[in-house]
Design brief:
There is one protein chain. By secondary structure, the chain is mainly β. The protein has a single domain, classed as Lipocalin. The protein has a 10-stranded antiparallel β-barrel with strand order 1-2-3-4-5-6-7-8-9-10. Strand 4 and strand 5 form a beta hairpin. The termini are far apart.
């Protein structure tokens, strides 16, 4: 009986710690994301890759990613970053994936303008990372497991305006 009570107590303690570790975010963590607002560019062998972000209000950013090669422009995705119910969400709609449906990634970590969003149930990527390195440098990364292999891609943008 004593062992059972001890085990139940330990189990309840672990559950409490687990729930306590689920972060509640505030406007304090969301506000630095306003630094994304503007136009960002990364040159690649396949043409220039851009991200354009607009601050819609105090809890919503709207972005789009597109590629420019010569006179052709191809929209790759539409994205929102939102703050609601003490949580921050990164939600892309990729035009040739997921039947054009949004995929929600929830902020799991924030430190020094580095945001880690995760959706463990998504096929790939499971994590999207944004880091505002400075007012003129934005580092983004997608990563996760694909076909049992850990993978990742880095994107380093410079501010255009």
């Amino acid at each position: 009986m004593g062992r059972t009570i001890c085990f139940i107590g330990l189990l309840l303690t672990c559950m409490h710690v687990s729930f306590a570790q689920q972060a509640a975010w505030s406007g304090k963590e969301f506000k630095p994301l306003f630094g994304l607002s503007g136009l960002w560019k990364m040159d690649t062998p396949r043409g220039a890759l851009y991200e354009a972000w607009d601050t819609m209000n105090d809890s919503l950013l709207s972005g789009r990613s597109f590629r420019v090669k010569g006179s052709d422009t191809m929209v790759l995705e539409q994205v929102t970053i939102s703050f609601q119910d003490n949580a921050i969400f990164y939600t892309p709609v990729v035009h040739d994936q997921n039947d054009h449906q949004p995929v929600v990634f929830k902020l799991i970590s924030y430190n020094n303008n580095r945001y880690v969003f995760e959706n463990a149930a998504h096929v790939y990527p499971q994590r999207v990372i944004y880091e505002l390195v400075s007012a003129s440098i934005l580092r983004a990364r997608i990563e996760g497991s694909k076909n049992g292999r850990e993978m990742g891609s880095d994107f380093v943008y410079s501010r255009v305006k």
